[in-house]
């Protein structure tokens, strides 16, 4: 009987801890939404962020190279190979 009570108590404590975590996550989500509504990015801020893309190298994926070229306003052929795109980076 004592073993059953201990199991029940442990399950109840675990459920309480889970409820607390769920509540905390909800609060954080609400704060994030409220903060997100207050801050609107200007075009300059978005451009500044896009210019922070790191320079790609031979290990970069094609999409990463394209994103870099786009951020630097460098025109490229969509069907170009990685090597061709990397040549435009230099």
The ordered string of helix (H) and strand (E) elements is HHHH
The count of strands amounts to 0
Helix percent band: over 70%
Mean pLDDT across every amino acid position: 76
Radius of gyration, CA atoms, in whole angstroms: 25 Å
**Which residues sit in consecutive blocks of at least 5 with pLDDT less than 50?**
none
Strand content: under 5%
Tally of individual helices: 4
Helix and strand composition category: mainly alpha
Distance between the termini: 75 Å
Q: The biggest beta sheet, please?
A: none
Shape: elongated
Q: Can you characterise this structure?
A:
- The protein is mostly helical and 90 residues long.
- The protein is built from 4 helices and no strands.
- The radius of gyration is 25 Å and the shape is elongated.
């Amino acid at each position: 009987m004592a073993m059953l009570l201990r199991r029940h108590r442990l399950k109840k404590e675990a459920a309480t801890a889970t409820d607390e975590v769920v509540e905390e996550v909800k609060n954080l989500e609400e704060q994030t939404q409220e903060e997100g509504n207050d801050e609107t990015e200007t075009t300059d801020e978005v451009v500044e962020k896009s210019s922070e893309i790191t320079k790609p190298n031979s290990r970069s994926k094609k999409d990463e190279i394209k994103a870099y070229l786009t951020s630097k306003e460098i025109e490229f052929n969509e069907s170009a190979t990685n090597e061709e795109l990397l040549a435009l980076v230099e």
